[in-house]
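Quiz preparation item.
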């Protein structure tokens, strides 16, 4: 309910604490959180847990095999300073007034921010001259007529709505009218699936990361939660390493399938998982390819061509390699990359401004006990 606080049981040092307000009070939470219902002002306690009491939360966490964890009994063992609690309650109204002013400014900044996907879609859409309204209109059509010959246009004899829907046909035909080249025309080597792993292959002290789908869910490689494998496993699978400029694509699972990450680290040591694909391009701006793979143009092709039901959907290199890709000359490729990157970087400045406002909130809480 509104005013509750959720504390992550896993890796408390990440400071992933959630305050329940009117926007998320009807959302269910998993067992991965500790549920708190404060007796004091909930919002002030929330900020205090993230600042004044943050070290105490970490101090009582338990070091598991791989990472620290928190349990309900650990939270109960914490004793908060009466002086701090009294100070916060004494300045309750002043604190909330200042915090609410900053929250208003943060909300304004968030509303002004553009999503990277919107920027990517806008730039590609303008370059292609794509009719987004017509595309969205066709996506709404759930019933339409077809012919037997249209069901025979693929070697798998696909007959589902997802593969034959009008929006997909419209998009594919449009892309083919803009380029005659496919991804396979720019790959340095065949697109391949990664390597499977067993529990015995993991090694916390290993030098090689094992990049799973969960490590690229934000469209970037997240090193922090990535497991490591033994040197023996890495040497036995040296052909499944990644290097700078490679693109990894998740090949399975609803909500994850189609997500991509560009490897940007020159000195990375990593093996990619069997539920991902490695794409190595040549004679093509890899950052442009990365942006294109994130766009709705490419992602809708993934939606059309993925196979399977429910959450068990898959897409394979043999399909990905035949997807159309823009065939612009090098100067134009660089120009489009610059347009997209400049706008995305500008949004990062908004993030910095939001972080600065959040830090001001933290300082208000910390300064309240000094007065």
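Solution:
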């Amino acid at each position: 309910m509104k005013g509750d606080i959720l504390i992550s049981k896993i890796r408390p040092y990440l400071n992933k604490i959630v305050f329940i307000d009117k926007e998320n009070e009807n959302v269910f939470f998993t067992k991965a959180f500790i549920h708190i219902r404060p007796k004091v002002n909930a919002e002030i306690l929330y900020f205090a847990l993230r600042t004044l009491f943050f070290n105490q939360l970490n101090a009582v966490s338990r070091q598991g095999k791989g990472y620290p964890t928190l349990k309900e009994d650990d939270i109960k063992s914490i004793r908060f300073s009466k002086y701090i609690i009294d100070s916060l309650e004494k300045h309750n109204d002043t604190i909330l007034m200042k915090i609410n002013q900053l929250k208003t400014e943060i909300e304004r900044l968030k509303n002004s921010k553009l999503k990277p996907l919107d920027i990517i879609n806008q730039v590609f859409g303008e370059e292609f001259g794509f009719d987004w309204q017509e595309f969205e209109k066709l996506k709404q059509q759930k019933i339409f007529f077809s012919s037997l010959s249209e069901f025979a246009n693929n070697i798998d004899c696909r007959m589902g709505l997802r593969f034959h829907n009008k929006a997909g046909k419209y998009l594919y035909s449009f892309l083919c009218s803009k380029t005659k080249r496919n991804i396979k025309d720019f790959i340095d080597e065949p697109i391949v699936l990664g390597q499977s792993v067993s529990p015995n292959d993991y090694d916390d002290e290993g030098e090689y990361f094992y990049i799973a789908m969960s490590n690229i869910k934000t469209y970037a490689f997240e090193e922090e939660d990535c497991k490591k494998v033994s040197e023996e496993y890495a040497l036995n699978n040296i052909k499944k390493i990644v290097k700078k400029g490679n693109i990894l694509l998740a090949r399975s699972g609803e909500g994850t399938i189609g997500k991509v990450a560009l490897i940007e680290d020159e000195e990375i040591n990593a093996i990619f998982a069997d539920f991902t694909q490695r794409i190595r391009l040549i004679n093509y701006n890899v950052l442009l390819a990365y942006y294109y793979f994130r766009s709705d143009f490419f992602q809708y092709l993934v939606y059309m061509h993925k196979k399977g039901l429910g959450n068990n959907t898959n897409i394979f290199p043999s399909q990905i390699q035949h997807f159309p890709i823009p065939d612009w000359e090098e100067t134009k490729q660089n120009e489009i990359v610059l347009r997209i990157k400049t706008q995305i970087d500008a949004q990062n400045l908004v993030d910095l401004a939001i972080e600065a406002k959040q830090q001001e909130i933290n300082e208000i809480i910390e300064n309240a006990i000094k007065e």
